[in-house]
Design a protein that fits this description.
The chain is α+β, with helices and mostly antiparallel strands. It is built from 3 helices and 4 strands.
Length: 95
């Protein structure tokens, strides 16, 4: 069954550009992993600094094993630009 993972991120004030650059670099890594169908980044119009990342995976298992393919150093720039930890929600695609 396909997995959709949704991250809600809040950038530290003044760190939008840094977060967007870090997410762009992370996207390049994640989309190269077998099983990743899409990695979409959206920014809310208001309030400033609120982002949503959607990852689409072929299966729950593909997502589970992807963690070992992502260098931990790829998360540092993302986490360094955040005001707090992200909210993560997983959905199983039904339709």
């Amino acid at each position: 069954m396909k997995l959709i993972r949704i991250y809600t991120l809040t950038a530290t004030a003044g760190q939008d550009a840094a977060l967007e650059a870090a997410l762009g670099a992370l996207k390049a890594i994640v989309t190269a992993i077998d099983g990743c169908e899409q990695f979409v980044v959206g920014r809310e119009q208001k309030p400033a600094g609120l982002y949503t990342v959607l990852e689409f995976w072929t299966t729950v298992e593909a997502h589970r094993v992807s963690g070992s393919a992502i260098p931990k150093s790829a998360f540092g720039p993302v986490m360094g630009a955040l005001a707090g930890p992200p909210t993560i929600t997983d959905f199983l695609q039904k339709l």
